Amino acid sequence: MRIAIMGSGGVGGYLGGRLAASGQDVTFIARGAHLDAIRERGLRIESALGEVTVRPAQASSDPATVGPVDLVIFAVKLYDTEAAAEACRPLVGPATGVVTFQNGVDSPEVLTRVLGREHVVGGVAQIASVIGAPGVIRHTGTMARFACGELDGRTSARVEALAAALRAAGVEHVVSDAIQRDIWAKMVFLATFAGLTALIRLPIGPIRGDPDTRALYRDGLAEALAVARARGIALPEGFVAQTLARTDQLPSQMKSSMLEDLERGKRLELAWLSGAIVRMGAELGIPTPVHGLVTTALKLHADGRG
Description:
This protein is of the alpha/beta class. The protein folds into 2 domains: 2-177, NAD(P)-binding Rossmann-like Domain (Rossmann fold, 3-Layer(aba) Sandwich); 181-301, N-(1-d-carboxylethyl)-l-norvaline Dehydrogenase, domain 2 (Orthogonal Bundle). It contains 12 helices and 10 strands. α6 (179-200) packs antiparallel against α8 (211-230). The protein starts with a strand and ends in an 8-residue tail after the last helix. The relative contact order is 0.12. The model has no long low-confidence stretch (mean pLDDT 96).
């Protein structure tokens, strides 16, 4: 299967590296020093689940040089979604699937508008991974779980083909018949986790361990859940308690990618996480004071240090 990785950072680089190491025909779309390093030295994954080096690795900055593929793994930062979707056009043939493993809930709509709904497949990535150095993907902890599924819940040959490729690569995954629900389940968790770790400038351990910040975290989850349910997403009773219990099992030093970006002076996905909860809450008449605090306190950092 020919696969293009649009956005070869923490998520795309991890998946692409695992798939390429298992024998799939993978091309990494990247730029700058990361692209140069992949071309010169290959792509390396540093992970407690097993280190991998793909050398040589196929990489390009221009999707037009790659041409149509069977599958695009779409994993760019949320603020690059529109431009990257337009750049994807040369990769998309009549039967190409474009699987978004981005954060937030807006990506399927943007990709549908730009590329057509028939090409868009939903995805969820549960992993803490970043570009540790040019050409190096650093995976923190041992959580690396992925879900994918057609937006309408049907089965399809392209999703089954992706699942088979992930299975051959040793990547933990599920095929979901309710991927929109799964995307929102991650959104409720991630908007709160990312927002508060970035706001407080600490990993999750101290935040969940202090009664006051734990209460703030719980309230943020409840706000995001209320927004999800108001938008017709059927998340279960007890979801906040279940999410808190899962949070308690995370490594204490686990940071969100938004905190990593903040520390490095990079642009933040704020507007598409806590900012989106605030925006949708206002539209639906649902108070979102925790996410409002996060959005206001971080807004002057949202564009990075340039």
